[in-house]
Amino acid sequence: MLLAVDVGNTNSVFSVSKEKEILSEWRCSTDGNMTADQYFTWLQQLFSISNINYKDINKVIVSSVVPDSIFNLKVLAKTYFNCVPLIVGSDNCIVPISVDVENGVNVGADRLVNSIAAYKIIGGDTIIVDFGTATTFDVINGSGSYIGGVIAPGVALSTKALHEAAAALPHVEVKRPPNVVGRNTINCMQSGIYWGYLSLVEGIILKIKQEKKISNVIATGGLANVFSRDTSIFDKIDLRLTIKGLVYISSFNEDK
């Protein structure tokens, strides 16, 4: 069995799969100081609920944008699962995709993993939109090469900044307001956030399509479903895109 770990800036996802089939998935807040023992204690409870024997896990793969977390996850893999984990972006992990960006540029592990999954699922000429702490737009061409992307502030960051910069404005939930023109402060803010952000996403996608002649768009991240009700710009939504990418990469490295 494979334990796949996706460490994001805000949340981390742990998933167990067998023969490329995802069996269970759990989420927690990212904590770079969490020890291997603390990870295992938390996971052991979840394994028990899902009827998973931790001794059956013999492979671990990690994608992390939080460097502080990697050491303790390596210890977790070696101590409790008796294996050396694959770390996306390190020399011990080969990725089945070429990266065509400027020399010296390191592409985030999560963005590479998403791109690999997208290419596997729907092919090339694809834009991958990930609604995370930052909203990222990544592009793979027809031959499956990663050729760059766009990074925008995430929706949650935008709402937090608006609240913190303007003392009189409350912190509001990201949701579709009843009308575009709000009749109270909360609805006014929700309209600006929801419709403004949706316009940002649609606008960037259209610009990328024009510039790179890209045809497909796949979205992931929790807010993908929130925004999809008012746009047809996404061809596919896959909330497990990153985990699927990690499973594909693990299988690819097994075959090497």
Helix content: 25-40%
For this structure, what is the CATH homologous superfamily of the largest domain?
ATPase, nucleotide binding domain
Number of strands: 10
Q: Note the gap between the termini.
A: 18 Å
Low-confidence stretches: none
Tell me the number of structural domains. Answer: 2
- Coarse structural class: alpha/beta
Q: Major beta sheet, specifics?
A: 5 strands, mixed
How are helices and strands ordered from N to C? EEEHEHEHEEEHHEHEH
Radius of gyration: 19 Å
Q: How would you explain this protein's 3D organization?
A:
It is a single chain. The protein folds into two domains: 2-93, ATPase, nucleotide binding domain (Nucleotidyltransferase, domain 5); 109-244, Nucleotidyltransferase, domain 5 (2-Layer Sandwich), CATH 3.30.420.40. Helix content is 39%, strand content 23%. It is built from seven helices and ten strands. The chain has helices at 36-49, 67-80, 109-122, 155-165, 185-212, 224-228, 241-254; strands spanning 2-7, 11-18, 21-29, 59-64, 86-87, 126-131, 134-140, 146-153, 216-220, 236-237. The strands form two sheets. Strands 3-2-1-4-5 form a five-stranded mixed sheet, sandwiched between helices. Helix 1 (36-49) packs across helix 2. The protein starts with a strand and ends with a helix. The mean pLDDT is 93.
Briefly, what is this?
By secondary structure, the chain is of the alpha/beta class. The chain is built from seven helices and ten strands. The protein has a five-stranded mixed β-sheet, with helices on both faces.
